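Lay summary. Proteins are chains of building blocks that fold into shapes, and those shapes determine what they do. In this project we predict the shape from the chain. Here is one chain we studied, written as its sequence of building blocks.
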Amino acid sequence: MAMLRPLGASDRSMDLILEEVERELLISLTAQLIDFVGTAADSGEDPLVALVGIDPEAVPSEDPALHRLLPDAFRDDEEASLEFRRFTERDLRDAKVRNAEAVRASLGDDGLVVHLSEELIPAWLGFLNDTRLVLGARLELTEENQDEFADLDDDDPRAALYGLYGWLTYLQETLVQSLLA
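And here is the predicted shape, written in a compact code that computers can read:
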């Protein structure tokens, strides 16, 4: 199982030691997250709109997982939420893609020791959080039903996703705890 090895008291970087199957899984998850939140460039887009990052077509997603990643800013004001989304959603999506790309690049093409520099750690934390949010939304995971998921039979199709959710939670928690130590 993945382990984190802090490199020193004054250095906030660390090494993540992975098994090959874990590395391949993370590579796959980065690609899936990029596909899920990425936006295709519209060649007919107004250059000024593209430059300032405004998305005039931004609307809340009906996909619960995407809506979890890109929630409404104001629960009680749909108009204000839409306006806020128009100005921020593209940047949020781009930041999530950049985090996933940084994680993918850090995994390299070989080797099972991933050096997490102090500059790279926020990208890892963002990617792990985003991936967990998507899985949690897909599973419809809540605080109230976690015991139900923990008791799933191995042949339940949700068991593997819940196991993946748990492993990502372990990675995120271990990384945060290492930073706090």
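What the prediction tells us: Residues 30 and 101 are 7 Å apart (CA to CA).
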